[in-house]
Design brief:
Helix content is 48%, strand content 16%. By secondary structure, it is of the alpha/beta class. It has three domains: 208 residues, Vaccinia Virus protein VP39 (Rossmann fold, 3-Layer(aba) Sandwich); 178 residues, Spore Coat Polysaccharide Biosynthesis Protein SpsA, Chain A (Alpha-Beta Complex), CATH 3.90.550.10; 91 residues. The strands form three sheets. Strands 8, 9, 10, 11, 12, 13, 14, 17 and 18 form a nine-stranded mixed β-sheet that branches. Helix 16 runs antiparallel to helix 17, helix 21 packs antiparallel against helix 22 and helix 25 packs antiparallel against helix 26. The longest helix has 26 residues. It is globular and about 90 Å long.
Length: 620
């Protein structure tokens, strides 16, 4: 007997009907399953329309069936098939149709389906949650082949644990699936397959629901990204046609092993520094320990087979817009490149992560897509990635930046006069040399080769913040005159922002803060009012913006200033708006503080009203 046959024989014993009868008779066992699989159930339900006929294979006590019928107002027909008679009785008690089958016996399953299906009924939707991993290799194959024989695009939904609870840990199981092994097994039986990752579970979707309008490959180059890579790949799995991962040969952690769990293609990147002098992208400023980022990204693109490529990083996961990405093909028929939102911690910016496969990246440092001037651009606001790097990797990246970025950027500016490199060089100086950063940002603004636009607006914001920082340091050192001069220059720099980019309003908020700090409350009120015009509306910009400056912060500043100016009614309007504009992930403290501020203003207004309209004392 082979080792697999031994595993299957043991699983057959561990899955005996009488054992499951006892398990299903225990309320905690029933409740645990429904809670653990709640997210999976809800995802499947989103695909099941009213009027559907559903076969819940191995459906136990009918937890999924009951949730489905409630969600569809009882306008679905559910047949629960299980080998536990105790479970069947419980399912029937919930008003569901249920029948006994031997899950491994193909004929038993066929008889139950035929008996439970009305003549002329539509082809059923097959559901199997936490079942396939209990079956033998032959049992799974017979079941999946039977489902696929209904028609080529027969819909089905199957969930299994994600790379955990294998036979050595759970004797009821015969196999431990990964996203890729599960995908491959389903593809042996179905033409259309997607596998999504829902926490600790894999959701296999086959048939009609697995079809997409998009031909999109996700790809990325990585090096030592084991801390973040799994979350990134899992977020895209099932929502793109393929995943391609290029691994830096200098990688020393488990990056390769993790990539193999989720990616269709995993390959070794060549010459990470692009040291070949015959390569058109060669940059002599890239050190031996560094990376030529565009060269690495372009290698990944070369391995992609789809019409579109979604580039990302080893620490940047798909956060929102998964279903939008599935249907992106129709939306991008008239485009060559698409900008999506990238988010960090309380910041966001647009970036052309999604582009046609014939486009490539340029620049060894701060690489960007080389977009032709006549390229058709699209804005995909509903697709959002989240940039969040492990702290240890972030520290390593910081060291790499100091070694490579400053040199490559300075050389590009000094030798080729590229103002973009001057901007980024000044940016790199900020942490360790703020005075030097100020000098080079001033050079950038005076550079005639850098036309008005979003980059100059961003340079003014950064420069103003640096002047504010240095002014504070000057004040602490007793250099009050120099501190005042820096503040004046800070305001002057901010006043020039409107000419650079009319769509953004952060500078008005900052000018308001400068005026407020100098007790110029009427001036502050006017500046805050300008910034308040954009409260709740994010600008479409490729430069990073703080969420708060376009959400609740202008309203908070206006409420505060109106209160000081004695305009309580207007202060109340803005305070209430703060409550509405706080993001969904705002801290409890922020939410409670906003509510308290509204309450305080309301009480003050009520007290003032009582003072103006005192109640007359009765005459004795």
């Amino acid at each position: 007997m082979t080792e697999q046959k031994k595993i299957e024989a043991r699983a057959r014993r561990e899955n005996a009907a009488d054992l499951w009868d006892r398990l299903w008779s225990e309320p905690e066992s029933r409740d645990w399953r429904e809670v653990a699989l709640g997210k999976v159930y809800n995802r499947i339900i989103s695909y099941v329309p009213k009027g559907a006929s559903v076969i819940d294979f191995g459906g136990g006590v009918g937890a999924f069936g009951a949730r489905l019928t409630a969600a569809r107002d009882n306008a679905v027909d559910v047949l629960v098939l299980d080998h536990s008679r105790a479970a069947i009785d419980i399912a029937r008690g919930k008003g569901l149709r249920a029948d006994y089958v031997d899950l491994e016996d193909h004929n038993s399953v066929l008889d139950a389906v035929i008996d439970g299906t009305n003549e002329g009924e539509l082809d059923p939707i097959w559901i199997a949650t936490e079942v396939l991993e209990h079956l033998s290799v032959e049992g799974r194959a017979r079941l999946l082949e039977h489902i696929s024989c209904y028609r080529d695009d027969a819909p089905g939904f199957f969930t299994v644990p994600n790379n955990c609870l294998g036979p050595e840990v759970e004797p009821q199981h015969t196999i431990q699936f990964t996203a890729m092994s599960f995908t491959r097994e389903l593809r042996e039986h179905f033409d259309h397959v997607r596998v999504e990752v829902l926490g600790p579970y894999l959701l296999g979707i086959v048939g009609d629901p697995a079809k997409t309008t998009a031909s999109v490959s996700m790809c990325l180059p990585v090096r030592d990204e084991e801390a973040d890579l799994e979350a990134v790949l899992a977020s895209f799995r099932g929502f793109v046609r393929e995943i391609v991962v290029g691994v830096d040969p200098r990688t020393v952690d488990r990056t390769r092993e993790i990539a193999a769990l989720y990616a269709d293609v995993v390959f070794e990147l060549e010459d990470p520094t692009c040291s070949d002098t015959t390569n058109p992208l060669h940059d002599p400023a890239v050190p031996e320990t560094g990376c030529h980022f565009s060269w690495l990204r372009n290698q990944c693109i070369e391995r992609c087979s789809s019409e579109w490529v979604f580039m990302t990083e080893g620490h940047e996961r798909l956060w929102q817009g998964h279903d939008v990405l599935l249907g992106v093909g129709e939306l991008l028929k008239e485009a060559d490149v698409a900008y999506v939102w990238r988010r960090g911690k309380h910041q966001r910016w647009l970036f052309p992560w999604l582009a046609r496969r014939d486009l490539r990246y340029k620049r060894s440092t701060h690489n960007i897509v080389d977009i032709p001037e006549d390229a058709r651009r699209a804005l995909m606001r509903d697709i959002v990635t989240f940039h969040d790097r492990d702290h240890g990797n972030a520290e390593k990246r910081s060291v790499q930046r100091k070694e490579q970025n400053k040199k490559t950027l300075w050389d590009d500016w000094n030798l080729h006069g590229n103002p973009t490199s001057l901007f980024y060089f000044a940016q790199e100086l900020k942490p360790d040399d703020p005075e030097g950063a100020v000098e080079h940002f001033e050079d950038f603004l005076s550079c005639t080769e850098s036309p008005a636009g979003q980059m100059r607006y961003q340079a003014r914001l950064i420069l103003a913040k640096l002047y504010l920082q240095l002014s504070g340091e000057d004040s602490e050192d007793g250099h009050d005159v120099l501190a005042s001069q820096r503040l004046d220059r800070c305001a002057e720099v901010l006043h020039g922002c409107s000419a650079e980019d009319w769509s953004r309003t952060e500078h008005w908020l900052w000018l308001g803060d400068l005026a407020f700090a100098r007790d110029q409350f009427e001036m502050a009120y006017r500046f805050y009012g300008y910034s308040g015009l954009s409260a709740g509306t994010m600008p479409a910009t490729v430069w990073w913006v703080d969420d708060a400056t376009y959400l609740w912060l202008p309203a908070q500043r206006l409420a505060m200033t109106c209160g000081l100016l004695g305009r309580e009614a207007e202060a109340l309007v803005w305070a209430r708006r703060v409550e509405r504009l706080l993001p969904a992930d705002a801290s409890v403290e922020c939410i409670e503080e906003a509510a308290r501020n509204v309450e305080v203003i309301e009480e003050f207004i009520a007290a003032r009203k009582d003072q103006r309209n005192p109640v007359a004392e009765p005459v004795a």
